[in-house]
Give the backbone structure.
Amino acid sequence: MIEKKRILLLGTGGTIACKKGKNGLVPLMMGEELLTYVPAAKKFCQVEAIQILNVDSTNMHPRHWQMIAGAIEEHYNYYDGFVVCHGTDTMAYTAAALSYLIQHSKKPVIITGAQRPIDLDVTDARTNLLDSLRFACCERAHGVNIVFDGKVIAGTRGKKVRSKSYNAFSSINFPYLAVIQDEHILFYIDDKGQDKENVRFYHELDDRVALLKLIPGLDSGVLDYLAEHFDAVVIESFGVGGLPAYEKNDFYHAIERWISLGKIVVMSTQVTQEGSNMSVYEVGRKVKHIFDMIESYDMTLEAAITKLMWVLGQTKEPEKVRRLFYQTINHDILWKEG
């Protein structure tokens, strides 16, 4: 008889755990209650549950990512896999953050949730939770992944692309790792065993990372203000990436100030698919080469932001920041300089 895998469910709240309150849906259900809605899981795994927090994911904070990673580290040697129940709105950020806080894990760490509460008659919650538990038991599963709507997405590649539909998440600029159909797991990318390093948990994050979305006519003074309050900024530019060159060239001087202060600027794009390439147009090539600017290339915005938080938690030295940022972790970046 094959021994059942031991899985730890970590509850954090989110829609999957919501019930109706006076002012709308509010997360109230604990992990143990969630498990009562998926009795079929007992056929293939032993599940225990702990509650880390119980919040709407809009209220998720970097310190909560550290709490989740810390709980997994504490229980890592006692379980075969982990499932984190989470709200969908910031799930992509949490999955990316956990990818940096928990590296080289031979055991699966799954993040899942739902678009509708688990206690409704019509909901995606029971399927998503059961799929996640099933994938967490799979011998070939490892690392941090999102499981949602029958798809397995690398933790650094997920993005919420629909606000209401069950197929809420897509894998951006990278294939799905696997799909789950009729209780069967079909792998597209099976790379377990290629990473020979031992699991490593990180504990430090620097959340002083800002995001600036460019719009036509934006005053570059916004960057000057941000420099007083943040250690790094990710600039969401237009198209493949560039900075406006208005009459006074103020954006050039604003970036020059950031660099002179030893702070980090990363150029990203507002376009979801295909990534950045600042070398294509003069508005990007010039500033990139003058300031040797870091760019996110094919990374998701969520991965770029959380990776910067992780990197700056390790070092503030610009060259070390650059090296760590371009280091591929959990499939987060394929296209990079050099």
About this structure: The first strand starts at residue 5 and ends at 13.
